[in-house]
Design a protein that fits this description.
Mean pLDDT: 88
Radius of gyration: 24 Å
Low-confidence stretches: 81-118
Largest sheet: 4 strands, antiparallel
Number of helices: 8
Strand content: 35-45%
Shape: globular
Length: 508
Amino acid sequence: MLTPEQVHKMEELWRRGLMKISSHCPRLCALVDEAVGAGLNMDQIRYFLKKARADTGMNTWEHEDIDREVLIALTLEELRVRRGISLQDEVNILALTGSQKTGSQPRAASPSKPQEASSGCPPLTPRPAGQPLSFGEGNDCGQLGTLDNEERLLPTPVALPAGKIIVDVAAGAMHSAFLTSEGGLLTCGLNDEGELLRPTAQEEDCLGAASTSLIPAGLVVAEVSCGGSFTAVRDTLGRVFWAGQLRDSGGVFHDIGPRLVEVPLWAPATKISAGGDHLAVLVGHKIATCGAASHGQLGRMRARQANKRTSKKASLILSPWTTAAKFTDVCCGECNTLGLTAAGDVWGCGANHQYQLALEGPGIIWTHTRIPALSRLQLVQVAMGEMHGVGLSSSGAVFCWGDRCDGQLGDGTIDQQEPSVTPLVVQGLPNNIRQVAAGPRQSYCWTSQGHAYAWGSGGSDQLCVGVQVYAKESPFPMVGLRAPILKIAVGAQHAIVLVGVPPAPSST
């Protein structure tokens, strides 16, 4: 039996996040220690939590929903301690994350109505500008942006509206997006699901990069990322929007539509990454995910929940991973999400049938998991393909793991039967590699001097090695590019490279 003082203390700790006991969470352990310091024993603590979960209906929730509720409460407590927040802030956070519950089903956000962006977005921070070049096959949808349907074996300038300066590029399955220096967005390619954010009445309307007309007024885009049939953007206020369509093994999973719809957040986002049919967002030091969940790519829903069509609303609510790890970067593959921490650890989830998560064991990793084989490499960047991964270490070494059916591991072999769970160092590269990228079955890296290398499948002319090849099982120099290379983005059958604009000649 608890005294009134002990009940009062436990109610306080409940509000601060002590809704479960976990020896793996330091903050929950600290709350338990505080309860013990107030004179309660573990049996009394467990009795109170069991009764409180029954009284609130929490005992009927899924484990993932309880974990999300605990994380929200702990985050609110941390914000109170660090800088203080208002009651309205708390209400907004709880509402946006769908944490106010009255039964066993999570309260869903409403993603169906377009959200108009308010004016007053700060301008885009200046960054290096470049010229987008495209190459690949399957240009019948116009994803190369060259104003025709011709395939390109060598890099070809993308046709841009006059006066537009490009600072970032992204590639979806069959569409492309270009971020302009003033925070505008240009798109080209397939628009069957509204992923171009503009009406295209005829096929010719998709062949060139054009401004997006179905975008909220006053929006200043800071980042763009493309999924299979959707486009996501982050604005300079840290808000996230998306448009297009998500699919899963059952067909259409969620039709967002051609107008940008805001994805509710509890704090400003600092990075976004689109997978095939899901989205990952870095919010502070937390990774949050939403979208299709059938391959474990959200990292926060177990198999029995993810495979229920009735759980669709829960998967469309952007919700954070519950680990205490502090993330600094996030990237998505077709059906994977990976996060990097400041300590050099790598966490991941999703499809693992070809060891694309560098983990032994099941074909799907449903919950976010630390990956020891990658964590000990001190990776500073990771890129994910369809069934393989590419990583860049702090020493400048490049590693690959997963499927090697088209030579995408760069180890000199093509083997459809033996994927590699062990990250393999890619030989034959200079020691000053600056960045890496991945296509569905291709791998890329480049130096600050503009020397770029590619390996993997050449079936769609995405390697840019000057000749048509079936595959390259070892790194091969890319041709037709110039220094510096700012970014390589790869779609299903095409690639976009942003190369630096040469400085203007001196007038003297």
